[in-house]
């Protein structure tokens, strides 16, 4: 049908981080669609020696195994896989976990927005339907919802949800750009990658898909990551706001944030000063209450307007055609030289 992307010859490669997934990884490889041109399996210093196991068992000629000398976490393994696949000529890099938790039948809708030139990065979203969440534990539903709102604040992608979903696709030129960034190498990887994509104004698209859970054992300890995740979200939020509204640009939202914080602080400090210097037993007059409350109300309104501007300013024009043009021009210049 006209307008539909061709998957054969599209340069789609799978990147599979492998750490303690020996019992499942061959199932993932076996389910790779025929139009996938290559499969990079990254042995992340796996104690089960998954790299040796894959090389011994895999009959698929598309499989490439690389080994990391020390464990770098899911992020480090994925980035290493991105680099290897990109060097081998991949155009679209699909990251899938090696625990067979992701349905590869959804690869087509995942890569379609990139092939159509509508996005630079696509990711799964398990929250588009109640039926998609039936197999997800309730604690994960609540946790992912909270993390999603935090990710909206820290990345600026207000149009996406389920930021920790690890079933993703990225255009290779954008991946090469991200490889130069200091992206978190461990469990914060997917969310931190979104933050770095926002700094280069890449377009991100959600793709609906159901959750899948089997007998796999997660390596994540929830109690151990809550504090670090909160700190990193806060850090990325301040870095993003500072860079987007005060370094690379200065616009109406910048003014709204400045005046919003000033009014909010002014009203709060006035109320605190009155409280510390008041006569015991004397109630605040209407004038005192308004002098404290009105700046706070105005400040909150300014900040809400700034947030509204931020919601509407999510990237909408993909950057990979521009990056591809630059790469082609540089290659032609090198050939002529």
Structure commentary:
- The protein has 337 residues and is an alpha/beta fold.
- The chain has 2 domains: 12-243, Spore Coat Polysaccharide Biosynthesis Protein SpsA, Chain A, CATH 3.90.550.10; 250-336.
- The chain is built from 11 helices and 7 strands.
- It has a 7-stranded mixed β-sheet with strand order 3-2-1-4-6-5-7, with helices on both faces.
- Helix 3 (73-87) crosses helix 6 (172-178) and helix 5 (138-155) runs parallel beside helix 8.
- The relative contact order is 0.11.
- The model has no long low-confidence stretch (mean pLDDT 88).
Rg, nearest Å: 24 Å
> Given this structure, which CATH class of the largest domain is correct?
Alpha Beta
Give me the CATH superfamily of the largest domain: Spore Coat Polysaccharide Biosynthesis Protein SpsA, Chain A
Number of helices: 11
The major beta sheet can be summarized as: 7 strands, mixed
- Number of strand elements: 7
State the low-pLDDT regions, or none: none
- How many domain units? 2
> Helix/strand-derived class?
alpha/beta
Give average pLDDT, whole number: 88
* Helix-residue proportion: 40-55%
